[in-house]
Amino acid sequence: MQVNQQTLYNDGYAEEYELAEKKALYEQNEQLYWDTLKKWHIKDKEVNNSSGGGNGGSNSNDKSAAAADKSQKITALELMEDTYRAEKEAYEQALEEYNKAVETAHAGLDQAKAEYELLELELEQAKIDYEKKAAVCLADYETKQAEAANAASTYETTLQKLKDELDALENDKEEAAENLTTFEAAIGDGYLYTTSKGSVVMVAVSDNEVLEPDSIVLAYSDPTILTVTAAVDQEDIASIEIGDQATVMTEDGESFEAEVTKINPVSNSGSRASVTYAVTLSLEESEKLSANETVTVYFGDMPLKNQGKPEGQETKTGWEKQAAPGGNS
To answer: In total, how many domains does the chain have?
Structure first.
């Protein structure tokens, strides 16, 4: 490897082989040689062709004083040339040794660099292996944590569920005790008593039958309180409100005042074309009416809707609806 001489003085090897000093010394003496040639008006070939010697020639007695002087100058120039050439040779030898040292150093550096890169690759692989193992360990750790949290949550949920079930059983027990007390108080003498007078219209239980909560034992009717349930078309139901007044007319032509007390929000559908809503009315004077009697109900004083009007009935003021009165049960 040949090193650029312009940059070779910037390293330790150049200082070790004194390249800068040797180069400067031979260049200085070489320049001195050429300057002296020019100053003495002697050509380089005269110095190189001279047989050399301090005597300036064998026939010095026959030469003039000028020739003797020139001969002495050539001898001095020969010494100067020998000096700078020896210094130049020393510099070139040092430069050659320097280049070999630099090549050896670069070879060592390249090897060290290759070994360093190999170590870096091994380190990178070790990091990758470490990260993989760390990721696996972290995943296992998080899985175990999730399992532990899930187990704790399941435990808490199960415990709360058991507590809720226990509370529900305690409540059922208390309710059963209360119901038993109420039941025993109600039929302590073997009879059922109502809060008002009336007639039994239905018995819903039989001997040895197990009663369910909220089950009906019997139904009775109070003749002083009579209600009428009318089926109202969906196109008319929006115009009826609780508290509205109505007129109930029997088949014999008798009429009674009534008031809307309940509107069932759930419709009764006989078909797509027939959708009705049950409207319950309470009668003020009901002594002359009997349960399950068919009557006609007129709501307000609006004109009668022909749709659904009983066949053969005359058109009258109000909404005419067929209804069946029933007692309070």
So the answer is: 2
Give 3's Cβ-side CA count (13 Å radius): 24
By the 8 A CB rule, do 200 and 217 touch? Answer: no
Mean pLDDT, residues 299-316 taken together? 40
Tokens standing for 190? 């073997």
Q: Provide the pairing of β-strand 245-250 with 255-263.
A: antiparallel
Note whether 71 and 111 are within 8 A (CB): no
Q: What is the pTM of this model?
A: 0.33
Instruction: Determine the structural domain holding residue 247 and report its residue range.
Output: 222-328
> Measured on CA atoms in the order 79, 82, 88, 91, is the torsion positive or negative?
negative
The whole-angstrom separation of Cα 226 and Cα 325 is 7
Which helix or strand (DSSP H or E) is residue 297 part of?
A: strand 295-303
- Domain shared by 294 and 226, yes or no: yes
Specify the 3-state DSSP secondary structure of 305. Answer: coil
**Residue 272 belongs to a domain with what CATH number?**
2.40.30
* Same domain? 240 vs 153: no
Tell me what the mean pLDDT of segment 271-294 comes to. 78
Q: Residue 63 — pLDDT band, cuts 50, 70, 90?
A: low
